[in-house]
Specification:
Layout: E1 2-5, H1 7-15, H2 18-29, E2 33-36, H3 38-55, H4 61-70, E3 72-73, H5 89-98, E4 102-104, E5 120-122, H6 124-134
Parallel strand pairs: 1-2, 1-4, 2-3, 4-5
Helix pairs in contact: 1-2, 1-3, 2-4, 2-6
Length: 135
């Protein structure tokens, strides 16, 4: 199953666990195919580093590195703005270019105004039952 993961889901996985961590671990095992652009992958790393510094915690490379090593990297083609929050356009573009089934996001701001039938937005918790079937 092809997915694109919002940065907030990666942060939650690294620092808190739960359904987001199950998804990140499934990507690291190769059970899920997560797609990202270089910009998205860089955002993951920068966000985790910033949060770790803010919390004065050590980075958790044992969680992040296996995940990022398994990302399917693509070059997304720029598209017209389609998200209410323009910072989320990169996730939509990546999903459309990768032919992803889902954009996994816990952020309520990830509300697309036009997505078509290519992918659906789903929370990490919503993806968990589907992930259980794939394992």
């Amino acid at each position: 199953m092809k997915i694109v993961i919002d940065t907030q889901v990666v942060l939650t996985a690294v620092f808190f666990g739960g359904a987001p961590r199950q998804i990140v671990e499934a990507v690291a095992r190769g059970t899920l195919a997560a797609y990202a652009t270089p910009d998205i992958a860089a955002e993951y790393g920068a966000a985790v580093a910033k949060a770790a510094a803010k919390k004065r915690e050590k980075l958790r490379p044992h969680l992040l590195l296996p995940f990022t090593a398994r990302l399917h990297m693509i070059e997304a083609t720029p598209k017209a703005a389609t998200c209410k929050n323009s910072g989320d356009d990169k996730f939509l573009s990546c999903a459309l270019d990768a032919g992803a089934f889902y954009i996994v996001g816990g952020d309520k701001r990830l509300q697309l105004t036009r997505l078509g039938k290519t992918a659906k937005i789903m929370t990490a918790e919503g993806l968990s039952p589907i992930l259980a079937l794939c394992s």
